[in-house]
Amino acid sequence: LQNVKSTTVAVKGNQPCWEQEFIFETNRLDNGMMLELWNKGVLWDKLIGVHYMPLTSVQYSNETGAGKWLQIDQELETRNGQTIGTSRPTGHSLLVDVRFELPFDAQGSDAEELQAKLQALNKLIEVNVSRMCHSLLTSPDCIHS
């Protein structure tokens, strides 16, 4: 997507809160979004952990949701140079509300129908991308890293 970075003072305590909103556009639903959580230090910053979210897993809605707890991990998992996920849990989690907003003129049952169609399309894209990756990895002509 884009390299969106923000430094926000968190509400201190065992459950810090940022109340930060990021808005961006994309046509590449075959990509994903990397969330990084850092602790800013006086001399250096420390990476707390990362979470990779495939865009095909993002719901469509114009409504603010309750959010979803995401596990924060220590390492990125890559395949053929592409990030596919994260591993090695840190024990930390992050509550996020991530969504694709529907067009402004979609309301009521039209919005629900559009949302259902977009979710079905995302699932189809996810399945096809997964099949392509599997096909590339199992091909005898493919050089594996």
From TrEMBL:
Pfam families in the cross-refs: C2 (PF00168)
Gene3D superfamilies in alphabetical order: C2 domain (2.60.40.150)
One of the GO BP terms on file: presynaptic dense core vesicle exocytosis
An annotated Gene Ontology molecular function: syntaxin-1 binding
Highest taxon of source: Eukaryota
InterPro entries assigned to the protein according to its UniProt record, in alphabetical order: C2_dom, C2_domain_sf, Unc-13
Domain C2, chain residue ranges per copy: 1-70
GO cellular component: neuromuscular junction; presynaptic active zone cytoplasmic component; presynaptic membrane; synaptic vesicle membrane; terminal bouton
Record PANTHER family: PROTEIN UNC-13 HOMOLOG, UNC-13, ISOFORM E
Protein name: C2 domain-containing protein
